[in-house]
Amino acid sequence: MQSKEKPVMITGLERIAAKANNETKVQFTSLAHHISKDLVRGSLEHMPKDTSAGIDGITRDMAIHDFENWIQDMMNSIHRMSYKPPEVRRVWIPKPGKTEKRPIGVPCVADRALQRSTSTVLSAIYEQDFLNCSFGGRPKRGAHNALATLDEIISGKKVSWVLEADLKNFFGTLDHKWIIKFVEHRIADPRIISLIKRWLKAGVLEEGKVYTSETGTPQGGSISVLLSNIYLHYVLDLWFEKAIKPKLNGEAYLVRYIDDFVVCFQFRSDAIRFHKVLKKRLNKFSLELEPNKTRLVEFGRFASKHSKRRNNKLETFYFLGFTHFCTRNRKGNFMVGRKTEKTRFRRSLSKLKDTLRKIRHWPVKDQAQILNQILRGHYNYYGLAGNLKSLCKIYCRTELYWRKMLSSRSQKSHVTWRKFQKTKSAFPLERPKLSIPYKDLKKYVML
């Protein structure tokens, strides 16, 4: 007797994804109805409970509590193309290792939920279009995937030169006309286009004044990340794959994480030619390379052999918070070494110091709990194969600063190392641990 298999339910977004995959040039004319109440509510509930409120002061919990009171008006305004997003609250956060700050936009919670929902619908289409070289702001394609893929390319492909590149004020210089033009390659639903245009034109509130901009998109909303990936998909990824690679003499590979990217080359001449045309290509779309963060370095297993003959030390390059350098494993074979980049390391130490100053008078048990949360977060990101030494450094510095803070609680509170060891035995700190050891690194590769 044959068993009857249960029919598999296919969601609307899965049908859209299948159609986008099969018909690579089709325009989608009816998408707004997929932005449903349930999707918006799910996006709202997915936000962290402590997420920052926008200019209206409404928190995530308040928005969920009053959900039924505001959701229908939002849905109606989307379909009437009359939705007007509130201004974005601008805050300034320090750049890693620098005194200057960069702006972050904080949309209202309800608007953020709508952005996330719209991004979910559009991602069903664009995930079929985006190339393997792009990471960040995409499902299951995070920083660790980008780093593991780069490691695989440099270690296993014919790579001798690496162009490290960074875009100057990327989110602040995106051209609105080009954004809409790129989106319209695939999206022909006027309600979705209207939403995107209004988000781009939404003002930024800072110190009681509203500023509007003809370029750029505020960092902070889900839609900004998706739009930036769409922009660079057409400006950089497709152009590199279709127009550049066929004209090169050797192999070349691009790895991009949102607006940070590196390009690996077999030949120096190819790298120099690409660097020249890259500037022209970016200028056409109102983008510019940051000269201080863009450089060509000799790197890879072939470069390592040549440098050994010449007695030259190879340069390093930086990508996603790591310094990458050429080294060898225990068998004497070439491998890519990595360690926490200096400015990121200093930023982590600064965060630990600031936290310890704030909690120095808390109970020791609570202090240990907070410190372990910070250490776990650091290990989870920087615990990539080959970086154990940097993790041990952060652990030792944490021990040092914790003892110092415990000793500064009063004039009579000096803590000897012996006493501190007893405290640490009762309330142990999280030991350094690789989140992705070498044996698991290949699982993160996406080629």
Side by side, the strands of the main sheet go 3-7-8-4-9
Order of helices and strands: HHHHEEHEHEHHHEEHEEHEHEEEHHHHH
Count of extended strands: 12
How does the helix and strand content classify structurally? alpha+beta
Uncertain ranges:
1-9
Describe the largest sheet: 5 strands, mixed
| Rg, nearest Å | 25 Å
- Helix share, percent: 40-55%
End-to-end CA span: 44 Å
Q: Looking at the structure, what is the overall shape? A: globular
Q: Taking all residues together, what is the mean pLDDT? A: 89
**How many alpha or pi helices?**
17
Strand content: 5-15%
Account of the protein in words:
Helix content is 49%, strand content 13%. With 447 residues, the chain is α+β, with helices and mostly antiparallel strands. The strands form 3 sheets. A 5-stranded mixed sheet has the order 3-7-8-4-9, sandwiched between helices. Helix 5 (109-129) packs parallel to helix 10 and helix 13 runs parallel beside helix 15. It is globular, with a radius of gyration of 25 Å. The two termini are 44 Å apart. Residues 1-9 have low confidence and may be disordered.
Quick take:
This protein is α+β, with helices and mostly antiparallel strands and 447 residues long. The chain is built from 17 helices and twelve strands.
Defining key terms:
447 residues, alpha+beta, four-stranded mixed sheet, disordered N terminus
Write the layout of secondary structure elements.
Layout: H1 12-22, H2 37-46, H3 60-65, H4 67-79, E1 88-94, E2 101-106, H5 109-129, E3 134-135, H6 143-156, E4 161-166, H7 170-173, H8 176-183, H9 190-201, E5 204-206, E6 209-211, H10 222-244, E7 252-257, E8 260-265, H11 268-284, E9 295-298, H12 301-310, E10 317-319, E11 322-328, E12 334-340, H13 342-359, H14 364-382, H15 388-407, H16 417-426, H17 438-441
Parallel strand pairs: 1-5, 3-7
Antiparallel strand pairs: 1-2, 4-8, 4-9, 5-6, 7-8, 10-11, 11-12
